[in-house]
Each structure stands twice: as structure tokens, then as C-alpha cells.
């Protein structure tokens, strides 16, 4: 575990030494959530929550609420993708130097958890200037779960794809899933929406945000999806390490 | 070797690099049609609360098509410049004119954007009847050019993949939402010389979106949107030129054209 902790600390230090990156972790959520809040048209909104509840609210409250998990997911997804790419050479050397592949994998996944937590906390912090969820803790958990899921998608994409198609996939994947398919402003959801990574965590966040009550089944579904994605990305990363 | 020969050689070399990555090629061909169809299907489930004026599926496919081409070109522009940062500097030191190096990067970006535009337009035209196909295709190319240049600028200013990608992704995300016309943005300001400017004038994809919508639905050139779109191209081209010179040299212009 000491080796895992050392590799994790070194990875975090590398992030800290990149001030532009740290600034982006704060500025990007402020830019996206702030702008969507600013341009949200005045007017009432009817939200169709997963589970059948319908909630009446305003568009200036609805927009920051559903752009927050999306913003955290985008940041974690892109970070997960490049975490794998930038790590490939260095991690190969760690394995040659005596690290076990599973220790390297654990340290990288730990770093992804840190990035997801920071992205979620900053995004929710920005959102609170415009919208206060009914249950902040559950909303934060839903947001963090969304970020972690897309972080894992990023890890998988980072192992399996080149950078260009990887970024393309993360942007369009998260936009289509979180902003369009899972959007509570939609009167109905395509069947495909329930199979996408954002379904359970966004349902959890929206229910927590707008008082629809927390459904532990949604939490369980999100965690199961996360476990499956983590297993797949760990396996892919582990194989890459073994090859390296 | 003449400058044209150098540009052709550089472009062939860049394109060969892309062709050697089969997953990249496959994604370039497969993703635009998937994105366009997904946008169309998803938009059908939206209520009229957002400002859609036409059939929601068509609005979704219009938005998806423009976004797919533009962002793809933007990414290619970004990665072209990031991969150029060290290699081009050496080539410039070895006597290769920076103008030829930049031109080969830009031509590569334009070629990829054109291929993406062909793929996306074909996927779009299968599902939506296009009133003026040539005009609509030209506008798609224009959108690709705008974003490709934006990618070059971002890549020159933030020459690391993670940071550059985050900036481009977040710019594109907001741009796509605001330029789609789904959000009624009223904010405007009056500036001396320039005149009245709407908030949407500040998002690069807004004018190409208006041009594409008019070409697809009405078969005409949207009044007042071509000049601002070309203005974006001119401004971004100048910015890309300055940023590229700065990123591949010592910041001075002495090496340009050497």
C-alpha cells in the first residue's frame, strides 16, 4: 500500500505543478454552469423525474441543476482519458522498476477519484450560487457518481483509443447522454437512455435536487454500473501495464 | 524545394500519420453519423419550452451535424499544433520556412474537416431533405474551418493535450448550446464602429448554424450571417498565425519565412 500511496502522491503533485490545469478545474465549471445560468430563459419548467414524479420549477433553477453533473463528468472524463495516455510511459517504467501492475493501476484509479471529487465539489459549489438542492448531500453524491462513471469511460477510452477519437467520444458521449437523453426537461426518454452511464446517477441527483425523494435503487444501479466500468477499465489498464 | 512542394510534402506526411491510426480513422467515419442520429432522436423528446422553431428531430440533426464537423476539425487543429510544438521548431531551425509548416498543418486540418463534412453531410442528407445541398455543404466546411482554426489557436496557447482538450471541449459545449438557437439569448450591446452586437455574435458556431439552417430548410443564404462568419475565419486565421509563430519560435517574427 505504501507504493500505491507514493505513486498517488506523485501523480497528485504532478497535477499541482500544472497551475493552468488547476485553474481550469475551477474556471471551467464556473464558465459552463455560470453561462448556462445566465442564458437560461425566464419561465417555468416542468421536470420529469425518473420514477414518474413531475416537479414544477423555473428554468433558471433547472439549468444549473442538470449542467452541474455534466460539467463534472466532462472534466473527469477528459482527465481520465489523458491520465492513461500521459501515464503509459512512466507507469511502464514503474513496473520495470519493481512496481506490481496492480499497484500502478490502483494509484491511477485513486488519482481519478481525487480529480472526480474536486471536479464535483467545484461544480456543485458554483451551482449553489444559483440553485440550492433539496438534499445537498445526495445531490453531491449523484454528481460525484456521474463524474466517476465518466472518469472510468475516459480511462477505458484512454487505453483503447487514440487521443483524438477519445476526446471526441467523451464530449459527444457525455453531451448526448447527460444533456440530451437524461435531461429532465424532456417529456419522454428514448429506451436507450436507461442503458447509458448517466442514467442512474443523474436520476439520483435530480431527485435529490428537486425533492422527488431519494431512491436507493438508483444509487445501487449507479454503483453497479461503476463497478462494471471499473472492472473493465482496470482489466484494460492492467493488460497495458503487463505489456509495458 | 518550392514552398508549394514543401506544403504538399508536409501535408502528405501529416495525413499519413493520421491514416496509420486505424481507430482514429474508424471514429472519424463512424462517429458523425451516430452523433447526428442521436441528436435527432433525442431532440424529439424535448418539449416546446426551448426555442425550437422547426421539427425537433430536424433541429437536432442540424445541430448535431454542425457540431460533429466543427468539433472534429477543432480537435484535429488542436492536436496538429500540439504535435507540432517540438518537431516544427527543429524543422524551422533546419531551414524549413514556418509559413510552409503552418500551411501544411492548416491544409491537413482542412482536408480532415472536408472528409468529416462529406461523411456528416451524407448522413444528414439521408434523413433530412436539403433545399440547397451545395450551399449547405459549403457552410459545413466553413464551420469546420472556424473550429479548426480555433483548435489551432487553443493548441498554440495551451500546448498540452489535457489542458487544450479541456478548453476546447468546454468552449464547444457552450458554443453548441448557445448557437443552436434552442436558448433565446437576448443580451446585446452597441459598440462604436461595429454597431449592435448580440451575445450570440461571440460564439463561433452561431453564424454557421444560421447559414446551415437557412440552406437546409429554405434553400437560401441567410441574410447578414455570411460576413460575420467570414469575419470569424479572418480573426481566427490571424490569431492562429500569431499563436503558431509564438509557439514554434522564440516569439519574434524573424524566423518567419526564413
What does this structure look like?
The complex is a heterodimer of chains A (244) and B (258). Chain A has 244 residues and is mainly alpha-helical. Chain A is built from eight helices and two strands; from the N terminus they run ααββαααααα. Chain A has a two-stranded antiparallel sheet. In chain A, α2 runs antiparallel to α3, α3 crosses α5 and α5 packs parallel to α8. The longest helix of chain A is centred in the first third of the chain and has 38 residues. Chain B has eight helices and two strands; from the N terminus they run ααααααββαα. In chain B, strands 1-2 form a two-stranded antiparallel ribbon. Chains A and B meet through α2, α3 and α6 of A and α2, α3 and α6 of B.
Q: Topology of this protein?
A:
The complex is a heterodimer of chains A (about 240) and B (about 260).
Chain A: H1 2-16, H2 19-39, E1 44-48, E2 54-58, H3 59-96, H4 101-127, H5 136-160, H6 163-181, H7 199-209, H8 216-243
Antiparallel strand pairs in A: 1-2
Chain B: H1 3-19, H2 22-43, H3 56-93, H4 98-127, H5 133-157, H6 161-179, E1 188-191, E2 195-198, H7 206-217, H8 226-248
Antiparallel strand pairs in B: 1-2
Helix pairs in contact in B: 1-4, 2-3, 2-4, 3-4, 3-5, 3-6, 3-7, 4-5, 5-6, 5-7, 5-8, 6-7
Strand-and-helix sequence of chain B, N→C?
HHHHHHEEHH
| Largest sheet entry of chain B | 2 strands, antiparallel
Unreliable spans of chain A are none
Largest sheet of chain A: 2 strands, antiparallel
Separation, N- and C-terminal Cα atoms of chain A: 22 Å
- What proportion of the residues of chain A form beta strands (DSSP E)? under 5%
Strand order of the largest sheet of chain B: 1-2
- Summarize the amount of helix of chain A as a percent range: over 70%
Task: Give average pLDDT of chain B, whole number.
Answer: 81
For the largest interface, the chains and their residue counts are: A-B, 49 and 47 residues
The order of strands across the largest sheet of chain A is: 1-2
What class do helices, strands and sheet pairing of chain B give? mainly alpha
How helix-rich are the residues of chain B, as a percent range?
A: over 70%
* Overall form of chain B: globular
Q: pLDDT under 50 segments of chain B (min length 5)?
A: 251-258
Question: Oligomeric status of the shown chains?
Answer: heterodimer
Q: Kindly provide the radius of gyration of chain B, computed on alpha-carbon positions and rounded to a whole number of angstroms.
A: 19 Å
Q: Count helical runs of chain A.
A: 8
* Overall geometric form of chain A: globular
- Number of helical stretches of at least 4 residues of chain B: 8
Look at the helices and sheets of chain A and give the structural class. Answer: mainly alpha
